[in-house]
Amino acid sequence: MLVIRVFEETMRKLYQQRIAQGIPVGALHSYEGQEAVSAGVCACLKDSDYVFSTHRGHGHALAKGASLDKVVAELLGKSTGLCKGWGGSMHLFAPEIGLMGGNGIVGGGLPLVLGAGYSAKYRGTDQIAVCFFGDGGSAEGSFHESLNMAAIHKYPIIYLCENNLYAATTHVSKNCPIENIADRAAGYGIPGYVVDGNDAVAVYEKAKEVVEYVRSGEGPVLIECKTYRRWPHCMVIPENRSQDEIEMWLDRDPITRFEKKLIREFKFNDSELETIRNSVEDAMNRAVEFANNSKDAVPQDQPSELWS
To answer: In terms of pTM, does the model score above 0.85?
Structure first.
């Protein structure tokens, strides 16, 4: 969780510096506040399992095991990035560890994950696929189509809804008529669970249970993690949420909560926690240095047909 948090803090500052310098950097969708979801889920997966990410996918990539150096380099448009600098913030791919990429389309991973689920079942492996999407994605037609097909064929898929209450600037109540998105699982005859997405242990324990269930061939499951992003939708859209709401959720910050648990139940002290954070910040500084010392992305690294 700290690796994701420090990564996001650093990249947000670097993007702001570049915007101030007039450098076009595009949108940056910060994952700050949602770290417990990706950390808790991906801790239960094998390298061979698949993860389909979203436009807010930095946390998914890092939790699945993507190189910190290469993720930083990718966001800074460097040839040493995961996609040689051409994927950017929303398109982080690392198939060698099962990271099947982010997607700029809302709910874009929902139809794609069916292919991974079908492939694993067809080949008779014990692989599973996790499809992350937001509350906005659950209002897309592809959500219903994907769950319907996966349920019929018992594909080994975990549908992981990160409900951070807002699809860009639209509150979930404007596009979902029920309280829990997970309740929609009943319409497809599959299990659905609601989890506190800001509680890393709760996410991990439920994910572990569901991973075992899906891996055993029982079919898909829908998990809804209720969480909240700390910052506006992206770097180019102003904040529209109330300050009272933001402050309420800041009091539920997943990292602060987990640190209190470590102190209360495992007798950690402030010095030990500071040592952990310092080690993460050192790794982050090295990753930024690696990226800054790397060459910019070059057209020759792209398929030739894109440049014909």
So the answer is: yes
